[in-house]
Amino acid sequence: xxxxxxxxxxxxxxxxxxTQAIRGGTWRSEHGETxxxxxxxxxxxxxxxxTVAARFxxxxxxxxxxxxxxxxxxxxxxRIALMEGAEACRAQASGMAxxxxxxxxxxxxxxxxxxxxxAFGSCRWLVDHLxxxxxxxxxxxxxxxxxxxxxxIRPNTKVFxxxxxxxxxxxxxxxxxxxxxxxxxxxxxxxxxxxxxxALQRPMEFGADVVxxxxxxxxxxxxxxxxGAVCGTDEFINEILLPFQRNTGPNCAPFNxxxxxxxxxxxxxxxxKQSENALTLGQFMEDRIAQSGGTMLHPGLASHPRYDLxxxxxxxxxxxxxxxxxxxxxxxxxxxxxNLIDISNNIGDARSLMCHPASTTHAGMSAEERLExxxxxxxxxxNVGLEDVEDLIEDMDQAMKAxxx
Length: 405
Ligand SMILES: *Cc1c(COP(=O)(O)O)cnc(C)c1O
Description:
This protein is of the alpha/beta class. It has two domains: 259 residues, Type I PLP-dependent aspartate aminotransferase-like (Major domain) (Aspartate Aminotransferase, domain 2, 3-Layer(aba) Sandwich); 136 residues, Aspartate Aminotransferase, domain 1 (Alpha-Beta Complex), CATH 3.90.1150.10. It is 40% helix and 15% strand.
């Protein structure tokens, strides 16, 4: 297999993001295929016994088993690393496989992890239930409170874990401050960047150590496969993550990696156009929601409490925002009146999708836990897609009217 332009990472690294998204990481077989080849193989064969011995000894490059390496998955890993500006990346079976691996590969019994209280339901489950079972202490804080991060640090604090913007409250973390604080105390930051993707926000530019993804979301962007990724330094990925991953096997399937490779080619276009649509739709709704006593949680609107920070950290507002109406009854009434926008709990998709987090993504926790993290009964979260924004506005308009708004 041959890389498109030599084997020198220096060449591909110097490409601009739009070029990396199309060509980064591409290897070609002897057939010279235009589109990346899909290697649906679990294993590899060798010309002779000495070759396989050399590969297992790490003396010769090459594949040995698809839990360890696969050419299609390797192309995805290299492309994501280039787009993120990371030294290395390993693809995972799903976003949750990525978060679990990023935390468990480096935390041991007796360590302490500080996490944002507003988070995707399963991310909170890792912090509240999984880590403590293995003797890892956890503290959850209001991630928008810079002082809270500092106050939560203990002598054994090893990891800061958060999303920005957070799912589904759209809380924004001050990346510069929190990553700077962590590095001054020898703490590793793990940032779940699913709401933005590298097309809209690159946390490593603000000092993040590890950036983890649900590639199911914007990276695929067309609602087809589950996938994930963890990015970091060569040392973190190869010496800390890889031993965990090779021996526990949360690997990304080659087919899913291939689908995400195709998705990355259009990621930037989609992420920016969906952000533009999300801003237009948010602006249309803003006054009506406010007049009825509701709240918009939209990082692209000046009413967001951390609007200035969002503008500084993100290239655009992203496709996802939330809003809070009177209660569960009114929220469900809006969903039931939709004609175009689908009721669906996925995000990042080219289709507009809306869900009621309290009865879906965050239904697994108690009402008190939901309130503590800001998931109110009347909250709706929307992923704005690539449809004509006028059609989205008309659908939202009639659904809000039908629900008495
Ligand atoms: C969806 C999501 C995940 C989980 O990703 P999967 O691919 O569904 O496992 C993790 N974090 C955030 C912020 C998400 O939105």
